[in-house]
UniProtKB/TrEMBL annotation:
Belongs to the TRAP transporter small permease family. Residues 27-153 form the Tripartite ATP-independent periplasmic transporters DctQ component domain. GO terms for cellular component: plasma membrane. GO terms for molecular function: transmembrane transporter activity. Part of the tripartite ATP-independent periplasmic (TRAP) transport system. GO terms for biological process: C4-dicarboxylate transport. Keywords: Cell inner membrane, Cell membrane, Membrane, Transmembrane, Transmembrane helix, Transport. This is TRAP transporter small permease protein. The complex comprises the extracytoplasmic solute receptor protein and the two transmembrane proteins.
Length: 182
């Protein structure tokens, strides 16, 4: 049985993944609508670009947090992984500390950015606040901190999850290779 905190972080992880998926789909549809309106109806879609920027910010922030938890984000452990196994624990703790500090920085200064830009509006949309767009920064920073805390509290659960994912990916790759050779 997995600890409650790990299960909560699983749900948070899937929320980040869901936001990313919705963002990609919306950006694709908005860009498609902009192209159709410009080249078929001969009118510019002034709404497509600002809304695409909104979704790109959401995708970037929540996607980075989700990738960090999944262990696929190109992060500071790149250099730690180059070290011999016996030298890895101390630098790994330092990396986790730095990632937590970056998350705290995102929360504090992201909140300041949101407060500063909250009453600014996009010229194309008076109802979309610039601060709302940037609210993804402190929220994803909080998610990052929570994911780092999870890796501190439950390193075995995280290692097991990464191992399970690697096994699943290897099995999938073998099945695909088998399917392609037929």
């Amino acid at each position: 049985m997995r600890p409650i905190y790990v299960r909560l972080m699983d749900r948070l992880y899937w929320l980040c993944i869901g936001i990313g998926i919705v963002s990609v789909v919306c950006m694709t549809l908005l860009i498609f609508a902009g192209v159709i309106m410009r080249y078929i109806f001969l009118i510019g879609a002034n709404f497509a670009e600002p809304l695409s920027i909104f979704f790109a910010v959401q995708l970037t922030m929540y996607g980075a947090a989700a990738c960090l938890r999944a262990g696929v984000h190109l992060r500071l452990t790149l250099f730690v992984d180059m070290l011999p196994e016996r030298l890895r624990p101390l630098p790994m703790h330092l990396v986790q500390l730095l990632l937590g500090a970056i998350g705290v920085f995102m929360v504090i200064y992201g909140q300041s950015l949101v407060r500063t830009t909250w009453f600014q509006a996009y010229p194309e949309f008076v109802y979309v606040r610039v601060g709302f767009v940037y609210s993804a920064i402190p929220i994803s920073g909080l998610f990052t901190v929570l994911f780092v805390v999870e890796s501190w509290l439950y390193p075995q659960a995280m290692a097991q999850e990464l191992e399970d994912e690697a096994r699943h990916a290897e099995k999938f790759a073998e099945e695909e290779a088998r399917r392609l050779t037929l």
